[in-house]
Design a protein that fits this description.
single chain; alpha/beta; Spore Coat Polysaccharide Biosynthesis Protein SpsA, Chain A; 60s Ribosomal Protein L30, Chain: A; 2 domains; eight-stranded mixed beta sheet; five-stranded mixed beta sheet; 19 strands; 27% strand; binds magnesium ion
Length: 380
């Protein structure tokens, strides 16, 4: 069976939206709008591959936005939406798919049902679009006065993804080159292709105005908010460095433990596991198992992140406190924050690393070891 490729098109300047960052790269509940649109197709079982079409000036933004996703290199778009889609279609010509879904990057809330309905309709028709009936009464006017009421029967609002048999839409786009048609169904109509309509979804709206971003945040909701807590201690022993929050710090002692004894990463791993009721680090990585001897603790933290992702969850924030008299944490805080953010593929403003002493009191005060506490907030 020939492949189904999703072309996600976000090649506009994205400036009309306001703000420093182009619209398609602005964050919607912690992830770039474009990333959410791409993920909707990456996660769809009937989609074989996903290809982004981006503005040639946005490569750095794109790289940040799609970190960790498995995607081919993006295709550079053109001056108009139509030209960008055409370039995207041409990029697939070397290994032509059976069907192509063409989607606006600015519709991040497309649900799997819409995608499935479009694909199902392609079995009987060369093109298919999701559409919604017009509920409001339509008026024609100059903005001040109504001239007339427009009969809304037979009128529909077209959304994306718009699906087509690849060979047909490629030929239609080649024929329509130089025009400025606003969607691909119009390109298909121009070529005389039948375009079926399937039911769209109200939540699959296009983020056009800043208010739309608020609406999208509300639609996603805060989710099911969970908090987890982690605590860990390791004792000083022989060695010449300690590893804390993934960063090796030269010191006159090391920390004893089965793994690399990174108390910071152990505490934050337990906090994440606690937030989703997934047990603790020892249950997943038993100290009795020789394969974890000397293991770098980012393995444990990454696993906790994967458990969270498998539950459809995302990290709100992580707050870690290291408790020791020595070594001094301050000079390494930024590196620790960046390391944790990198392991979990989240932005570093969601991670906080702090340190305190215990005024020379207790085991940390006597310099016998290091303790760490961590709190994780996640939404499912
Ligand atoms: Mg530990």
């Amino acid at each position: 069976m020939r492949a189904t490729v999703a072309l996600v098109v976000g090649a506009g300047e994205g400036r009309r939206f306001g703000g420093e960052v182009p619209k398609q790269y602005q964050e919607l509940s912690g992830q770039a709008i474009l990333r959410r649109s791409l993920m909707a197709f990456l996660e769809h079982p009937e989609v074989t591959a996903v290809q982004a079409v981006i503005n040639p000036g946005h490569h750095d933004l794109y790289k940040d936005a799609v970190r960790g996703l498995s995607l081919p290199a993006p295709v550079n778009g053109g001056r108009t939406r139509q030209e960008s889609v055409a370039l995207g279609l041409e990029s697939l010509a070397g290994d032509p798919p059976g069907c192509v879904l063409i989607h606006d990057a600015a519709r991040p809330l497309v649900d799997p049902g819409v995608v499935s309905r479009v694909l199902a309709a392609l079995e009987a028709s060369p093109g298919a679009v999701p559409a919604l009936a017009v509920a409001d009464t339509l008026k024609r006017g100059d903005g001040n006065f109504v001239e007339t009421t427009v009969d809304r029967s037979g009128l529909w609002r077209a959304q994306t993804p718009q699906g087509f048999r690849y060979d047909d839409i490629l030929a239609a786009h080649r024929k329509a080159a130089g025009e400025e048609l606003t969607d691909d169904a119009a390109v298909a109509e121009r070529a005389g292709l039948a375009v079926a309509m399937v039911e769209g979804a109200e939540d699959n709206f296009k983020v056009t105005e800043p208010e739309d971003l608020k609406r999208a945040e509300q639609t996603l909701g805060g989710g099911d908010i969970r908090t987890g807590f982690g605590f860990d201690v390791h004792r000083f022993g022989d060695g010449d460095h300690v590893t804390l929050c993934g960063v090796a710090i030269p010191y006159g002692f090391g920390l004893e433990g089965h793994s690399d004894a990174d108390v910071g990463l152990h505490a934050v791993t337990d906090a994440l596991m606690g937030a989703i009721g997934a047990g603790d680090i020892g249950a997943h990585f038993p100290p009795s198992d020789p394969q974890w001897k000397g293991a770098p603790s980012d393995v444990f933290l990454r696993h906790a992140g994967e458990l969270l992702a498998a539950r459809g969850g995302r990290i709100g924030n992580l707050d870690i406190t290291l408790i020791c008299e020595e070594p001094k944490i301050g000079p390494h805080r930024e590196a620790m924050t960046a390391r944790i953010a990198d392991i979990l593929q989240i932005s570093s403003d969601r991670v906080s690393v702090k340190a305190t002493t215990t005024e020379r009191l207790g085991f940390t005060g006597r310099g016998e070891g290091i303790a760490a506490q961590a709190v994780a907030t996640v939404s499912l």
